[in-house]
Amino acid sequence: MNEGLGPLAGRRIVVGVSGSIAAYKAVSLVRMLGDRGAVVDVAMTAAATRFVGPLTFESLTHRPVLDDVFELDAEQQIAHIELAEAADAIVLAPATANLIGELAAGLVGDAVTAIACASRAPVIVAPAMDAGMWTHPATQRNVATLRDFGYILVEPEVGELASGLTGIGRLAEPPTIVAAVEHLFARAGDLEGLHVVVSAGGTREPLDPVRFIGNRSSGKMGAALAEAARDRGAAVTLIAGVMSVTPPRGVTVIEATTAHAMRESVLRAAPNADILVMAAAVADFAPARASQRKIKRSGDTLQIELVPNPDIVAEVGEMPDEVRPFLIGFAAESNDLEANAAAKLRDKGLDLIVGNVVGGPFDAIGSDENKVTVFAAEGALTDWPMLPKRQVAERLWDLIADRYRHSRGATESTTSPRRRRS
Ligand code: C5P
Questions:
Q1: Backbone angles phi and psi of 212, in degrees to 5
Q2: Distance of CA 206 to the CA centre of its chain
Q3: CA gap 222, 243 in Å, rounded
Q4: CATH of domain 195-407
Q5: Confidence of residue 185 (pLDDT cuts 50, 70, 90)
């Protein structure tokens, strides 16, 4: 079956196979990609060739397998660099702990690492390994490094492993990996030409030179949104409060750690933005006065007077239409999510609001996962499960990009941004 017209038609995809028992699943993966019209080249590590013979892949792709850069003659050496340049995507499946470690460290000892390193194409990594290896801090650190490079992870699944034990580490099924590749091409560039501003992290409202009132926000959700927008082609500005994660590469970072600093940065950036996502946890109150000197202990109780902070997103919501960006807020609620989110959507003049529950078993703050519901004026739009924040970010951009285009589509071209000042 060659569907021909799907998102993979004519795409050059390199599948890098490393030495895991799951290498046999790469055979179905390569076949499925080929069935969807992709031109697939396979690169194998030496260990992979002990699990599956290169001939199996060559029979499917009708193309030579690259399995040892050092045995290639000069012409083939160039061919393999050309392949890295020609690739539209690289899919590493299965990716062993060793391959992930080599890539994280920049070690380029074989055809798979050489192509992944030489190429500027997006890289999808589908790990497969024993549960102990997957959860080992070294692997998790290396995976985090690959995410920092912008690699897309197709998370391993829970199931029976080669050891016979059940745990996390099983290679995602080929259809899941194919879906990740299709998603990459389906959405690639859908934010091209747009300037997206994302605020992330928490604010700290100073009490004295060493103390502050803050919150538990990690900035992970905002960082994931900024990263996903970057990958979809947007020019991204991240207005960063206090974050426990490193901001993604390739985005402009503006630090703003108090509500007032964040207000200044957001109000300055908003008129040049097409879309503003206020994911930051901005303190609603700040101490009326910050002491210049460290407050000394005394036997007495200490009264702190708190004054309300400006509601930044509500100020943007009131901007005139010509400068007001498409506006998305967050609502972290411990109870009555729907009613509170709906009230905030209205009161703050938002286009969409992303509601999540804080406290209790679904606590989103600081977590790597999040369960959100998106609301528009007409009510709840989504019913998503608990998902890794990067996946939440992708789904949010699918929805935001669609709504943004509709909101702008009535008056002007859907492909050009609403305004461009700079
Ligand atoms: O009212 P509440 O703080 O729950 O509203 C949350 C939403 O409003 C978030 O999008 C947050 O970034 C934004 N916010 C703001 N300025 C504040 C407080 C919250 O922009 N002072």
A1: -150, 165
A2: 32
A3: 9
A4: 3.40.50.10300
A5: confident
**Which sequence positions are flagged as catalytic?**
215
Largest CA distance in the chain: 83
What is residue 232's predicted lDDT score, i.e. its pLDDT? 87
pTM over 0.85: no
Locate the ligand 1 atom nearest the alpha carbon of residue 313 and give its number.
20
According to DSSP, the β-strands at 285-287 and 205-206 are: unpaired
Query: Which residues surround ligand 1 with Cβ inside 6 Å?
Result: 259, 278, 280, 282, 284, 309, 311-313, 329-331, 344
For ligand 1, the distance from its centroid to the CA atom of residue 378, given in whole angstroms, is: 21
Superfamily of domain 12-187: Flavin prenyltransferase-like (3.40.50.1950)
The answer to whether domain 12-187 and domain 195-407 are alike in fold is: yes
For the chain, give every domain's residue range: 12-187, 195-407
Q: For tokens 């008129």, name the residue.
A: 271
Q: In sequence order, what are the beta bridge partners of 13?
A: 40, 89
Residue 218 CB-density burial (10 A; 0-12 exposed, 13-18 middle, 19+ buried) = buried
Query: How many other CB atoms are found less than 10 A from the CB of residue 303?
Result: 5
pLDDT per residue as tens digits for the range 340-382: 999 999 999 999 999 998 877 667 777 778 889 999 999 999 9
- CA of 176 from ligand 1 middle (Å) equals 36
Where do the DSSP E strands lie in 256-360? 275-278, 285-287, 306-308, 326-333, 352-357
DSSP state of 50: H
